[in-house]
Design a protein that fits this description.
This protein is 10% helix and 44% strand. The protein is mainly β and 302 residues long. It folds into two domains: 3-157, no CATH class; 160-299. It is elongated, with a radius of gyration of 24 Å. This is Transferase.
Length: 302
């Protein structure tokens, strides 16, 4: 190779390196109603794969805290699209374990690089109503991290109890929801109860009856019942479950995941109520956890 050609090649390599460092590749995400995602990659600075069989380029999903486990990494092939971008598909049939996944692009043997978020089309996730099935419900919501990277929150549940409207009274919370991923929802809900489980101790477990109409359910939970167990020290957190009458059936964690909001804790907020406890007045407040599960906090003002 001539000196001029070598210089041109080195200049091009330097340009690609500078472009990668200055502006990382980004991904636009499109969700479908079944729970699948398609990633459209822009800003790719490496030679584009010629087809999905060309594994020089791949989308790499790494689960936080589980990178070295057998199910801690998922690689998806990148392929070209008509508009010159690259695309990778994550169908709902791919069993993605629950957790937070950091999203990278990889080229050849190079170290994978984090992707920046682009535009998300998550309209199909808003008020999503999955069809009848007993297979695990797959939910994936892409989001931008506080450091400006693209990540993905994944849930995989069967059965699943989706929380809906929550109405607060002075001493109670009334919740409506719908049960998914059981063969006969009405039979599953017959005789079922809502169960509040305290994280700090195994007992007592507080229960309240359910009212059911097909797959839909509702219940009213007393804050005072939960406050009876407070010891006057740090706060108790009560996780809410639906427990069927048939002990052979798995219970369902009450959560809100069928929409486009990856982290509900700071968005869906509910005012606290003051109730009487054995050690004086105490505050009761429902909230969504970092996993978007529904819980109730009983304790001193937060």
């Amino acid at each position: 190779m001539s000196t001029t050609a070598q210089a041109a090649q080195h200049a091009e390599e330097d340009r690609m390196t500078e472009a990668t460092e200055a502006a990382p590749a980004r991904a636009d995400c499109v969700a479908d109603s079944a729970g699948g995602l398609t990633f459209h990659i822009a800003g790719w600075t490496r030679p584009a794969p010629g087809s999905y069989d060309d594994w020089r380029g791949a989308l790499v999903l790494v689960r936080r805290g589980a990178a070295d486990s057998p199910d801690g990494e998922v690689r998806l092939p990148l392929g070209p699209t008509a508009d010159g971008r690259l695309q990778a598909a994550l169908p709902s049939t791919v069993a993605l374990p629950e957790g937070r996944w950091d999203i990278h692009v990889a080229y050849g043997e190079e170290e994978p690089q984090r992707l920046a978020p682009g535009l998300n089309d998550l309209r199909s996730l808003v008020d999503r109503r999955p069809g009848p099935s007993t297979s695990p419900l797959s939910v994936r919501i892409p989001y931008a991290t506080k450091h400006g990277n693209l990540s993905l929150r994944s849930w995989r549940r069967a059965p699943h109890a989706e929380a809906g409207e929550i109405r607060l009274e002075d001493d109670t919370m009334a919740v409506r929801g719908r049960l998914y991923r059981v063969e006969y929802p009405a039979d599953w809900l017959a005789g079922a109860v809502v169960e509040a489980r305290c994280r700090r101790r195994a007992v007592p477990v507080r229960t309240a009856p359910l009212e059911a109409d097909g797959p839909d359910f509702s219940f009213t939970l007393s804050y005072s019942e939960l406050a009876r167990s407070w010891d006057g020290d740090r706060a108790d957190v009560w996780d809410l479950w639906l427990r069927p009458a048939d002990e052979a059936m798995a219970p369902a964690r009450l959560a809100r995941i069928l929409d486009d909001v990856a982290d509900k804790k700071e968005i869906f907020t509910y005012p606290p109520r003051t109730v009487a406890g054995p050690h004086g007045e105490v505050q009761a407040q429902p909230y969504y956890t970092r996993g978007n599960d529904l819980a109730v906090r009983i304790g001193p003002p937060a």
